[in-house]
Amino acid sequence: MTQIEPELPRDLRSEFPHMKGFSRTNVYNMRAFAAAWTGPEPIVQTPSGQLSWSHNVTLLNKVRNHDLRRWYASKAVQNGWSVAALEHQILTGLHTRTGAAPNNPEALLPGSQVNVLRSTHQTLPPSELRLKGAIFVNGTSR
Protein backbone atom coordinates (compact mmCIF):
# COMPACT_ATOMS: atom_id res chain seq x y z
CA MET A 1 0.00 0.00 0.00
CA THR A 2 1.26 3.47 -0.84
CA GLN A 3 2.23 5.55 2.15
CA ILE A 4 0.08 8.55 3.02
CA GLU A 5 1.97 11.71 3.83
CA PRO A 6 1.26 12.92 7.38
CA GLU A 7 0.26 16.34 5.99
CA LEU A 8 -2.53 14.94 3.79
CA PRO A 9 -5.30 14.90 6.43
CA ARG A 10 -4.41 18.46 7.46
CA ASP A 11 -4.33 19.61 3.83
CA LEU A 12 -7.71 18.01 3.12
CA ARG A 13 -9.29 19.67 6.17
CA SER A 14 -7.82 23.00 5.05
CA GLU A 15 -8.97 22.58 1.43
CA PHE A 16 -12.47 21.37 2.40
CA PRO A 17 -13.29 23.15 5.69
CA HIS A 18 -17.03 22.46 5.37
CA MET A 19 -16.44 18.68 5.22
CA LYS A 20 -15.77 16.32 8.09
CA GLY A 21 -14.07 12.94 8.20
CA PHE A 22 -10.47 13.78 7.27
CA SER A 23 -8.82 12.57 10.45
CA ARG A 24 -5.52 10.71 10.03
CA THR A 25 -7.24 7.39 10.82
CA ASN A 26 -10.08 8.03 8.39
CA VAL A 27 -7.71 8.98 5.56
CA TYR A 28 -5.83 5.71 6.14
CA ASN A 29 -9.16 3.84 6.15
CA MET A 30 -10.16 5.55 2.89
CA ARG A 31 -6.92 4.42 1.29
CA ALA A 32 -7.38 0.88 2.62
CA PHE A 33 -10.96 0.87 1.34
CA ALA A 34 -9.91 1.89 -2.18
CA ALA A 35 -7.21 -0.81 -2.20
CA ALA A 36 -9.46 -3.52 -0.75
CA TRP A 37 -12.34 -3.13 -3.17
CA THR A 38 -10.45 -3.16 -6.44
CA GLY A 39 -11.87 -5.15 -9.28
CA PRO A 40 -13.53 -4.92 -12.65
CA GLU A 41 -16.73 -3.41 -11.27
CA PRO A 42 -16.94 0.08 -9.78
CA ILE A 43 -17.21 0.30 -6.00
CA VAL A 44 -20.81 1.56 -6.15
CA GLN A 45 -21.98 -1.67 -7.76
CA THR A 46 -20.43 -3.93 -5.13
CA PRO A 47 -22.12 -4.69 -1.82
CA SER A 48 -19.59 -2.39 -0.16
CA GLY A 49 -21.18 0.55 -1.96
CA GLN A 50 -24.50 -0.29 -0.36
CA LEU A 51 -23.10 -0.32 3.17
CA SER A 52 -22.33 2.56 5.50
CA TRP A 53 -18.78 3.74 6.06
CA SER A 54 -18.89 2.15 9.53
CA HIS A 55 -19.81 -1.22 7.98
CA ASN A 56 -16.91 -0.93 5.55
CA VAL A 57 -14.42 0.05 8.24
CA THR A 58 -15.56 -2.97 10.28
CA LEU A 59 -14.99 -5.22 7.25
CA LEU A 60 -11.54 -3.71 6.67
CA ASN A 61 -10.47 -4.10 10.28
CA LYS A 62 -11.96 -7.53 10.99
CA VAL A 63 -11.63 -9.49 7.72
CA ARG A 64 -8.25 -9.74 5.97
CA ASN A 65 -9.26 -12.11 3.16
CA HIS A 66 -10.69 -10.23 0.16
CA ASP A 67 -13.17 -12.93 -0.91
CA LEU A 68 -14.37 -13.40 2.65
CA ARG A 69 -14.76 -9.62 3.03
CA ARG A 70 -16.94 -9.59 -0.11
CA TRP A 71 -18.97 -12.50 1.28
CA TYR A 72 -19.66 -10.70 4.58
CA ALA A 73 -20.47 -7.45 2.73
CA SER A 74 -22.96 -9.31 0.56
CA LYS A 75 -24.58 -10.99 3.58
CA ALA A 76 -24.78 -7.66 5.43
CA VAL A 77 -26.62 -6.07 2.49
CA GLN A 78 -28.81 -9.13 1.95
CA ASN A 79 -29.85 -9.33 5.61
CA GLY A 80 -29.81 -5.64 6.52
CA TRP A 81 -27.35 -6.15 9.35
CA SER A 82 -26.40 -3.30 11.64
CA VAL A 83 -22.70 -2.73 12.25
CA ALA A 84 -23.00 -4.59 15.57
CA ALA A 85 -24.71 -7.55 13.85
CA LEU A 86 -22.04 -7.63 11.14
CA GLU A 87 -19.28 -7.57 13.73
CA HIS A 88 -20.99 -10.35 15.70
CA GLN A 89 -21.30 -12.55 12.60
CA ILE A 90 -17.62 -12.00 11.76
CA LEU A 91 -16.42 -12.66 15.32
CA THR A 92 -18.51 -15.83 15.60
CA GLY A 93 -17.33 -17.10 12.21
CA LEU A 94 -20.62 -17.24 10.33
CA HIS A 95 -18.77 -18.26 7.17
CA THR A 96 -17.63 -21.48 8.87
CA ARG A 97 -21.17 -22.35 9.96
CA THR A 98 -23.07 -21.50 6.80
CA GLY A 99 -24.28 -24.58 4.99
CA ALA A 100 -23.49 -26.88 7.91
CA ALA A 101 -27.08 -27.12 9.13
CA PRO A 102 -28.67 -30.59 9.11
CA ASN A 103 -31.35 -29.32 6.71
CA ASN A 104 -28.75 -28.50 4.04
CA PRO A 105 -28.31 -31.70 1.99
CA GLU A 106 -25.80 -30.04 -0.35
CA ALA A 107 -23.40 -29.66 2.57
CA LEU A 108 -23.95 -33.19 3.87
CA LEU A 109 -23.99 -35.33 0.73
CA PRO A 110 -21.73 -35.78 -2.28
CA GLY A 111 -23.06 -34.01 -5.38
CA SER A 112 -24.64 -37.01 -7.12
CA GLN A 113 -26.50 -38.08 -3.99
CA VAL A 114 -28.17 -34.67 -3.70
CA ASN A 115 -30.01 -35.33 -6.98
CA VAL A 116 -31.05 -38.79 -5.76
CA LEU A 117 -32.24 -37.22 -2.52
CA ARG A 118 -34.27 -34.61 -4.38
CA SER A 119 -35.93 -37.17 -6.65
CA THR A 120 -36.61 -39.51 -3.68
CA HIS A 121 -37.94 -36.63 -1.62
CA GLN A 122 -40.55 -35.94 -4.28
CA THR A 123 -41.91 -39.50 -3.95
CA LEU A 124 -41.88 -39.67 -0.13
CA PRO A 125 -44.43 -37.95 2.09
CA PRO A 126 -42.99 -34.53 3.05
CA SER A 127 -43.18 -35.41 6.75
CA GLU A 128 -40.72 -38.31 6.49
CA LEU A 129 -37.40 -38.57 4.72
CA ARG A 130 -34.58 -41.08 5.18
CA LEU A 131 -31.15 -39.46 5.06
CA LYS A 132 -27.85 -41.16 5.88
CA GLY A 133 -29.57 -43.91 7.86
CA ALA A 134 -31.60 -41.52 10.01
CA ILE A 135 -35.28 -40.78 9.73
CA PHE A 136 -36.18 -37.12 9.70
CA VAL A 137 -39.77 -36.44 10.70
CA ASN A 138 -40.80 -32.81 10.48
CA GLY A 139 -37.15 -31.76 10.48
CA THR A 140 -36.22 -33.77 13.61
CA SER A 141 -33.84 -36.75 13.52
CA ARG A 142 -35.13 -39.97 15.07
Descriptive notes:
This protein is mostly helical. The protein is 54% helix and 7% strand. The chain is built from 8 helices and 3 strands, in the order ααααααααβββ. A 3-stranded antiparallel sheet has the order 1-2-3. Helix 3 runs parallel beside helix 5. It is elongated and about 50 Å long. The model has no long low-confidence stretch (mean pLDDT 76).
What is the N-to-C order of secondary-structure elements (H for helix, E for strand)? HHHHHHHHEEE
Helix content: 40-55%
- The separation of the N and C termini measures 55 Å
User: Going across the major beta sheet, what is the strand order?
Assistant: 1-2-3
User: How much β-strand is present in the residues?
Assistant: 5-15%
Specify the number of helices. 8
Q: Looking at the structure, what is the overall shape?
A: elongated
Structural class: mainly alpha
**What is the radius of gyration computed over CA atoms, rounded to a whole number of angstroms?**
23 Å
Short description:
This protein is mainly alpha-helical and 142 residues long.
Observed structural traits:
142 residues, 7% strand
What is the fold's blueprint, element by element?
Layout: H1 7-15, H2 24-36, H3 53-62, H4 66-79, H5 83-91, H6 94-97, H7 105-108, H8 111-123, E1 128-131, E2 134-137, E3 140-141
Antiparallel strand pairs: 1-2, 2-3
